[in-house]
Amino acid sequence: MSLTKINFDSVKNKLKKIKLIATDIDGTLTKNGQFSSQLLSSLETLKQHNILVLLITGRSAGWCQGLVNYLPVLGIIAENGGVYALKESQRMKPFTAINDIIEHRQLLQNNF
């Protein structure tokens, strides 16, 4: 058995243990700012092998909510970690509790 074969088998066994891939979108999964058919096929293949994909981006919650609806992914983290949505609920949720959303938005407006 060659050294290459031993290393490949070792890597293959380690890959079998992967349950989740968390990845950035823009510039990582995109080519020239677009999703390719190869990406969509790869996401589907990962799903078929029970490997979950979690997308991560700085983009807005509204933009991301559409993605999680159409792509074969577990969910998405958006707005630089501020909110997330799981495919099963398709509803964006903040990572931290916001007791008074009106006050929270006013504070954000004041800051910006």
Mean pLDDT across every amino acid position: 86
Distance between the termini: 63 Å
How many DSSP-defined strands?
5
Detail the poorly predicted runs: none
Largest sheet: 5 strands, mixed
Radius of gyration: 18 Å
Order of helices and strands: HEHEHEEEH
Structural class: alpha/beta
Q: What spatial order of strands do you see in the largest sheet?
A: 1-2-3-4-5
Oligomer: single chain
- Report strand %: 15-25%
- Helix count equals 4
Proportion in helices: 40-55%
Describe the structure.
It is a single chain. By secondary structure, this protein is an alpha/beta fold. The chain is built from 4 helices and 5 strands, in the order αβαβαβββα. It has a 5-stranded mixed beta sheet, with helices on one face. β1 (20-24), α2 (37-48) and β2 (52-56) form a beta-alpha-beta unit. The mean pLDDT is 86.
Features:
112 residues, 4 helices, 5 strands, elongated
What is this entry, summarized?
Helix content is 41%, strand content 18%. The protein is α/β, with parallel strands linked by helices and 112 residues long.
What topology does this entry show?
Elements: H1 3-15, E1 20-24, H2 37-48, E2 52-56, H3 61-70, E3 75-78, E4 83-86, E5 93-94, H4 101-111
Parallel strand pairs: 1-2, 2-3
Antiparallel strand pairs: 3-4, 4-5
